[in-house]
DNA sequence: TCTTTAAATGCAACTATGTCGCAATAAATG
DNA sequence: CATTTATTGCGACATAGTTGCATTTAAAGA
């Protein structure tokens, strides 16, 4: 299925590029008035299918999306934690890559590590 | 707020004790026909407030509850990953405790690490 | 044991997040 | 410009979880 370059998907991409944190659907909605809810979800899911973004599920149960920066086309890993601030709701990457030994017979497909708490800004 | 020892909360506790995996609301519902949805949620949340159980949020966005075993009353840590099988939906603890250095100024309050994939049973 | 108190429950309504079907719109290609 | 089909808007739907309120019931006391 060939992708088309639409105003909406461009704008969502720009938002993702501008933000260095991982972005929620809600936050994108707020910056794109007039664009339908479902459309934004579809754009984000398309990006994810295409390997353009990571999808993180927070410990609030919500989805957050972040541009893939260090991911090659073939190997696509983001074994790092994210920090979610319970006050300002920012979700940032914690750079350190985690290597985790799986028990015999278990096949890991997705890594989803989230630490929540209070971020530097909100703390000080 | 003093807790009361009711048939329902006893039964939920028994289910949590019997299962070694982390349990979803859905799974408890299935084993306790006749008990209201909301009641089960409330019991689980009470257990969590009281520090009896861990609450894990899966990368499916759902909540899973597991009895606290190695948690003291005061120090209450469960810095370990959970593995969620995308086929059988079991959520098990991966024993190894993770120690993670927080960046300067960040206060960690909750650890939520989930690896999803295919478990040993479903794999073989 | 009877009475009192408030925690726990059932039920319905509600919120929130995300998905889907379908007709209308609009990129891309020639 | 005409054709094709990916994308969109809209409404409906699904699922997970929460909340208000009247009723029930565990627990403490008389
Ligand atoms: Mn990636
Ligand atoms: Mn614990
Ligand atoms: Zn913050
Ligand atoms: Zn399995």
Automatic annotation (TrEMBL), chains A, B:
Binds 1 zinc ion per subunit. The keyword Transmembrane helix does not apply. Its cofactor is Zn(2+). It comes from the Bacteria. One of its GO terms (biological process) is regulation of secondary metabolite biosynthetic process. GO terms for molecular function: DNA-binding transcription factor activity; transcription cis-regulatory region binding; zinc ion binding. Gene3D superfamilies: Winged helix-like DNA-binding domain superfamily/Winged helix DNA-binding domain. Pfam families: FUR (PF01475). Keywords: Metal-binding, Zinc. This is Fur family transcriptional regulator, ferric uptake regulator. It comes from Lishizhenia tianjinensis.
């Amino acid at each position: 299925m060939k992708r088309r370059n639409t105003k909406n998907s461009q704008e969502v991409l720009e938002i993702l590029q501008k933000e260095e944190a991982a972005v929620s659907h809600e936050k994108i909605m707020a910056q794109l008035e007039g664009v339908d809810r479902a459309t934004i979800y579809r754009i984000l899911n398309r990006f994810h299918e295409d390997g353009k973004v990571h999808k993180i599920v927070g410990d609030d149960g919500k989805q957050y999306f972040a541009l893939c920066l260090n991911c090659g086309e073939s190997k696509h890993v983001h074994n790092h934690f994210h920090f979610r601030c319970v006050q300002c709701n920012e979700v940032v990457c914690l750079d350190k890559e985690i290597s985790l030994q799986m028990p015999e017979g278990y096949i890991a497909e997705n890594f989803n590590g989230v630490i929540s708490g209070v971020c530097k800004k909100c703390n000080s």
